[in-house]
Structures are given as C-alpha cells and as structure tokens.
Write a structure and sequence with these properties.
Blueprint: H1 2-9, H2 18-31, E1 39-40, E2 51-52, E3 55-56, E4 61-62, E5 65-66, E6 69-74, E7 87-92, E8 100-101, E9 106-107, H3 117-150, H4 157-184, H5 187-192, H6 195-228, H7 233-260, H8 278-304, H9 312-337, H10 350-362, H11 364-374, H12 377-415
Antiparallel strand pairs: 1-6, 2-5, 3-4, 6-7, 8-9
Helix pairs in contact: 3-4, 3-10, 3-11, 4-6, 4-7, 4-11, 6-7, 6-8, 6-9, 8-9, 9-11
C-alpha cells in the first residue's frame, strides 16, 4: 500500500516537464537576472510613498511599483490563447501591497484582458465546423467502402484505387477529428507539448499526403488506361500502392526530420506555423498540377479518339470517371491556391476565409464519395439489381406464407 502511494506521487516528473522548466527559468530571470517587462503608465506618484515589491506571479515578473498605481506589461506569449499584443495589469494598493482577490485572499493579476473572447468564440465555431464536416465525410466514405467491398462484381483496378483513396481520406479525417478534440481544444496538452501529440501531428499529416497522392493515382490510372493501354493492371496497381503509401511516407519522414531539428518549430505540438510545411505543400501541389494535366489529356483522348464501339459502356464509365476527377482536382487544389491569398488577421475577409476553408477542407471526403461512388453508374446499377432481388425474395417469402396458410386451412377442412 505504501509503495503504491509513493508511485502515485512520483507520476509527475517536474524536472523534465517543459512548462515547469519554462516557469522556473522565468522566475530565475525575475529575481536573479532582474528581467521584467512591467511598467507604470500615466500614473503620478510620490517616490517617498510605499512601494510594492518585485514579485513573480507564476507567469510574469512584476517590478517594484509605487503605491496607488497600476503596472502593465504584455501578455505572456507562451500561454496558449493569450494575445501578446494585449496587456495584463497588476494593482499596487495605497499601503504598498499588491492587490488581493477577496474571493481567495491571494495576490491577483488581471489576465482576463489577454483573451479576445469574441475571437475565441469564433475559433471554437470554426473548430466545430471542421469536426462536423470531417464526421460527415467519414460516414460517407465508410459507406462507400462497404458498398465497393460488398458488390464483388464491381472490383477492378479503378475500384481498388477508389478503395485506397477512400480509406486514406477516412483515416485522415478521423485523425483530424482526434487532433481537434484532444489537442486543439486542450490548452494544457498544447502547453505541455508531449511526444504523443507531436507524433499525432506527424501521422495526421502522413495520411493527409496519402489522400492527395491517391488522387494523383486516380488521374494516372485514367491516363494509363486510355493513352498507354498496354500496361498490365496488376503491375500498375503495385506501383500505385508504392506511390500512394510509400512516397507519402518518405515525404512525411523528411518533413518530420527537418522540422524536428529546426529551432522553435517543435513547440506547442507543432501547431505553430513553420516554413518546413513547404516540404509537404510543394510535392502535393506538383501532384495536383500533374494530375490536372493528365486529366486534360484524358478528356482530349475521349473527345477525339474514342468512337462508338461495342464496349460503349466502358467508354461511358471512363468519361464519367474523368469528369468526376476533373471536378475533384481543382476542388482539392483550391485549398492550396487560397493559401497565399489568405487575408491579413483581423481584416474584413479573414473570418469569411476561415469559414470557407473549414467547409472546403472538411467536406472533401463527402465530395469524393458522391462523385466516385454514390453517382457511379456501376454502383447505381448494382444497387438497383440488389434491391430488385431483395424485393422479389421478400415477395416470394410472403407468397409462401400465404400459400402455406391456405394449405393448412384446406387440410383442417378436409379433416373436419
């Protein structure tokens, strides 16, 4: 029992806790190195009156302050949610002591001014849009995967690529939901910057990259099927898997390694902006541009070289797939095109941009499911056939029940 109690008291390792180390350093700077940023603004005072002593309140260092004045300093930047452009303040009372909060009888610093409540509420709404949008996309994607796997007659190279694309999107969206719920919404988690949240960031970005590279595989497959034609599906599928899952892993490893060794880029669960993100943005952007070129060429072939043939249905399926992909590629690329066009913070269009970006990003999976599954001719045909067979089977069971009931009645009449 005693050992159990000791183990519980040693769970929290203060010496290795980054927040504890940061605050300890600030306290040392306050009393040993005399580092403080507080100042008295606009108040008149008599130097012969009492002075409040230098104090470290747990977040900031407050210099000696004349009685009956108020000291100000920028809000601490290391606290998630605080705006360093705003100011916290601490009152020195008439008798030269710091103001005491009557509710808890402790010295009190006013940090409430550090939080922009309106902006905080808006960002909460944006995060909710992301979570709801990703949840809708996951539901649509999982349903699509079930449909593809259930109707075995649909399985071909194109549908297998769809399944990989849908799986990468579904996993990516689930991870983003986890990210928003366990990291973004948890200030303490971001502040502590534990290894698990950094790993979650890396894994989430890996599956985000796979989604775009499998979209590239969609375009590449259409290009190969209609232009190159002589490549075997089995060989092509192996290369697609290497490209979709393997190349994404290499890009992610390079990104994680470079960012890990970049000073200041691994704080706050890697949430802060870092130029290392271009390691992801550039290859993804290139894949989108090349995909668009492939698809334009596919459309050109469909319009100029394919004529009515006995395999008209296959030609029509290829046309619809190309049209769906042509819609999706600009849709996916629009998110990257909008990055340089992002309005400045607090500008009139900034909030509209945030809402549009949240909707566009979180509902990509739903768009994929609609265009590649729910409106797919083969899927619709297979579903109608299944429903027709299901209805006929139910009718047969019902008729059997009626006939059996009549036979039983006839038998009873005969016995009587």
């Amino acid at each position: 029992m005693q050992n159990s109690t000791l183990n519980r008291t040693r769970v929290f390792d203060y010496e290795n806790d980054p927040t504890y180390q940061l605050l300890s350093g600030l306290r040392k700077n306050c009393f040993t190195d005399n580092v403080t940023h507080s100042t008295v603004v606009g108040d008149t005072y008599n130097e012969n009156d009492g002075w409040c002593p230098r104090v470290f309140d747990g977040f900031s260092c407050w210099d000696e302050t004349p009685a009956s004045t108020t000291a100000f300093q920028p809000c601490p930047e290391f606290i998630v949610g605080f705006d360093p452009r705003r100011f916290a303040y601490k009152k020195c009372t008439e008798n030269g002591t710091w103001y005491v909060n009557p509710n808890n009888n402790k010295h009190w610093t006013n940090y409430t001014t550090c939080v922009d409540v309106e902006d905080l509420n808006f960002r909460t709404i944006i995060n909710s849009i992301y979570v709801v949008g990703y949840s809708i996309s996951v539901a649509a994607l999982v349903l699509s995967i079930i449909i593809f796997l259930y109707f075995r007659s649909l399985l071909c190279t194109r549908i297998r690529i769809h399944i990989h694309l849908f799986s990468s999107f579904a996993i990516s969206n689930i991870l983003w939901i986890v990210w928003y719920r366990t990291v973004v919404d948890k200030v303490v988690v971001v502040q502590n910057n534990r290894e698990w949240c950094q790993l979650l960031h890396i894994v989430t970005h890996y599956f985000m990259i796979t989604s775009y590279l499998w979209m590239f595989c969609e375009a590449l497959h259409l290009h190969i099927a209609l232009v190159v034609v002589f490549v075997k599906d089995e060989v092509a599928m192996r290369w697609f898997i290497v490209l979709g899952w393997g190349i994404s892993l290499i890009i992610t490893m390079i990104y994680a390694t470079v960012r890990y060794f970049t000073p200041g880029a691994i704080e706050r669960c890697w949430m802060d902006h870092s130029d290392t993100i271009w390691i992801i943005v550039i290859p993804v952007g290139i894949s989108l541009m090349v995909s668009f070129i492939f698809l334009i060429n596919v459309v050109r072939v469909l319009l100029t070289k394919l004529h009515p043939t006995p395999n008209q249905q296959a030609s029509m399926a290829a046309k619809k797939a190309a049209r769906a992909a042509l819609i999706l590629i600009p849709l996916f690329g629009l998110h990257f095109i909008l990055i340089p066009l992002r309005p400045l913070p607090e500008s009139p269009g900034e909030k509209l941009y945030q809402v549009a970006s949240a909707l566009l990003t979180s509902l990509q999976g739903l768009c994929v499911a609609i265009l590649f599954c729910f409106t797919n001719h083969d899927v619709m045909t297979a579903t109608k056939t299944y429903m027709s067979r299901f209805r006929r089977a139910n009718e047969a069971i019902a008729m059997t029940g009626v006939t059996g009931g009549e036979s039983l009645m006839n038998t009873k009449d005969h016995v009587v």
